[in-house]
Amino acid sequence: MVNSMEPRIIPRKEHCISRKQVSPNAVRTLYRLHRKGFIAYLVGGCVRDLLLERTPKDFDIATNARPGQIKRLFRNCRLIGRRFRLAHLHFQDEIIEVSTFRRAGVPSDSAGAEETGRNNRPSRHVKDEDGMVLRDNIFGTPEEDALCRDFTINALAYNMADFSVVDYSTGLSDLQQRLIRPIGDPYVRFTEDPVRMLRAVRFSASHNLVIEPAAWEILCDLSSAISRVPPARLYEEIQKLFLLGYARPVFSLLEKSGLLAALFPGLSQWNYGNSHRLTLLHTNLEWLDQLCRSGTPPSLALFLAALFGPSLEEAALASHRGGIPHKQALEAACAIFMKEICKTASIPKRVGILLHGILAFQHSLHRTPPQHPSSLVSRPEFADAIAYLRLGAETRRENRTPLEWWDAFLLEAPSITCSEPPTDEAPPKRRRKRRRRHRHVAKTPV
Ligand code: ATP
Ligand code: MG
Fold this sequence. Notes:
cca-adding enzyme, domain 2; 48% helix; binds magnesium ion; binds adenosine-5'-triphosphate; 8-stranded mixed sheet; alpha+beta; Beta Polymerase, domain 2
């Protein structure tokens, strides 16, 4: 448990963060807030990453200026968010998020989003009956703001007033020990926002950090609570978990913790105790991670195909053996899958259509020579379907002849681009395919 304490302040000469590593837009924003007399901190993952000498994904700022004051200071500001009121500063190539320091809310007596506070006005901090926070918008001090963040390593701040690093918890020592430690009681923090369990897994996989053992045990105990998170939010989180180049280690941690069984029960049953299937999934995810590392992140549909394709193909084959035409069997398997997964994560319908397209396409791609190859190339799922063919050829050592045929064909038609094999060289950017209208997709209830 991390209690309130005097912050540890590390002066400029004792840490490695330089303004040169910070986005110039963030630096200008921090200076402007500071010049106007507000506290201006760089906060969150960017401070963690700069201290770890990694390139931050984004730069977040926290201040004691209220959203309205921020809006008046910056012409490029848009206020967003219902759960947290945030300012987004729009620059040409970047959005800088500026939030007002907040604090954790006072626990509410009764549950529900309709809860009202004093004077019958909507309460700014609302929890459901299981303790999950539904709304939270109470302003606080820099310390309170730090202590309502998820992990100690994510609660560090860089103060623009004197370029020091400010640590209100144990972020610096945890960073040195490479530990992910929730701020406060892990049971409470994972219960009030179960997404923090996924974030712990993601940071552990992407930053090669260890989830603090006591917190890990609680995370495993609470893993089933992840299903209480709204599907729209889980959709966002699943993309961050699997499409950023760490899908393989993420998958292992999800599996060990029980989160995989809670998120994807069907898949978890499919590979349970089956080392062959498990190895296949691991290999597929490792292949996707290599794609990311080579600069061609997979699409969500390709990721779904890599993770769920083998079980879907197996289900379709079983129905086919039972007398159902293969095309129909695959369609049905994908439709059932989409219906099930959407209870957890609201995967868009168009992604479901692409997933089915990738798997259905394999039949045409395996035929050598294919019929009307140029028309196949113009289909929207072609690039991902070829990538899936490549995945099979390279990881499952399937017959390489169809892939070789297509590689030769595509080489002669240089205007066509598709997912490249994972190499160390930076591949050309994926070309956007013209979207086609699908008329008869209604068979898949997604
Ligand atoms: P990255 O951007 O590299 O994925 P990050 O830690 O910056 O990692 P963001 O989603 O950008 O993650 O969030 C910024 C900061 O907001 C976090 O570092 C953390 O301090 C805080 N935060 C984000 N999500 C939560 C949450 N669910 N509970 C508490 N604090 C959170
Ligand atoms: Mg971030």
